[in-house]
Amino acid sequence: MFPSDLISAFFLLSEVSIGLMGNSLLSMLYIHAFLSQPHLKKPVDTIFTHLTLVNILSIVFRLIPDVMASFAVRILFHDAVCKAVLYAYSVTRGLSICTTSLLSAFQAITVGSNLRKWAWLKSKLESCICPSLLFIWIINTFLYIPMVENIQGQINFTLVGSRNSQTYCRSIQVRYHTTVSLVTALMIRDILFVFIMMWTSLYMVTLLFRHNRRTQHVHSFSVSLQAFSEKKATHSILLLVSFFVFFYCANTFVTFYLFYRPKSSPVLDMISRVLSSGYPIICSYVLMNNRRIISKFISSFSNSECIFSTR
Q: E strands within the chain?
């Protein structure tokens, strides 16, 4: 193993550790809140929990195979495992796009619930969350099925300078119409959900700006506290969408550049891996910035300690 491969392996391993630690901690906090304080659960918490679980799966299927390949572990070079890993990662990546878009749309409706045109929709939000999550699972599960036929594991051969080669898998020759149909469907999905993210984010920014101008002279403590909590949650989601759009656009640019580049570049390959896994890693820490879930966990833990000490 070359020193550069060893450095790359430990760098990827640190990414895996940071990403899994943050998302696992956040998902456990949400699950604990659901079990210990179900009366305080909000509909948006279901989307947050789903997003953290999707991030965990995305990190596992994106980075761990690269770490194993960097340490020269050959188990993932087999054809069936290679197809399963890349299919699972592609599905989780699509789920990440759709879930972030759903989260942004949900928060936009919540922030704009004071407006008459959105009031009727807010009462139906909670009943629409689980069907919406099931719908995006169905879409992404069936969308990537044609891709499985186009993947082949690298067994006992080496590809040099191949545009389509990856660390442990490569694309094989496929029918033209299959490739075009798959790429077109993926582009339509990505453009649609990224557009929803950006449109709802712009809508939330506009509402927050109007709300600040309207309530800057209001000094009611209860109104200010509620507005501050809602504003902080909205800021976290806006920051989350901004990070997603940045990593998505940057990774898309680097991926297309690598595809049309005549020779492979280890540095650009590493940048592509970092960009593709950047959003799942940083997502949990952005959500922790909204300390409502953490404060609820600390308060419930303190109450349980008080009950235990009393007994």
A: 151-153, 169-171
